[in-house]
Design a protein that fits this description.
This protein has 128 residues and is an alpha+beta fold. 31% of the residues lie in helices and 31% in strands. The chain contains three helices and seven strands, in the order E-E-E-E-H-E-E-H-H-E. It has a seven-stranded antiparallel beta sheet with strand order 2-1-5-6-7-4-3. Helix 2 packs across helix 3 (97-114). The protein is globular.
Length: 128
């Protein structure tokens, strides 16, 4: 299955007690065969990934609804910043051009208003 070709995927990470937590995200293919998406640095999925790099991906709707029989794709996620973030962001921007740029602009405005200086962060996934 080409999970990177999906518009949205359910990104599942695992709590310390093993319970899964799923979040719908955009996903973009990288030239080296990995996939990734950008995110805020201090959200739950990033915190959970620090404790356990195991993830699963499933095609879903924008609201996270998974179709019956949708396949699971497993992998390992890593939190990245800097040049690796830039690589992921370029891939996301190519795939979701208009909406990605609008969201990026909105995030910039929000950081100016709140004086927040979060490091741009992405999740880079190596599929099993």
């Amino acid at each position: 299955m080409d999970i990177a070709g999906e518009k949205y995927v359910s990104f599942t990470t695992f709590r310390k007690d093993g319970r899964p937590v799923s979040t719908p995200v955009w996903i973009a293919a990288l030239p080296d065969g990995r996939v990734g998406f950008s995110t805020d640095a201090n959200v739950g999925k990033v915190k959970r990934l620090r404790n356990n790099p195991a993830i699963t991906l499933r095609p879903c709707s924008v609201r996270g609804k998974i179709a019956d029989g949708a396949p699971d794709v497993s992998g390992r996620g890593v939190i990245v910043t800097g040049a690796e973030y830039d690589q992921v962001w370029r891939a996301v921007r190519r795939k979701y051009f208009v909406i990605a740029n609008v969201m990026h602009f909105g995030n910039k405005l929000r950081s100016l208003v709140s004086k927040s200086r979060d490091t741009p962060t992405a999740i880079l996934i190596t599929l099993d």
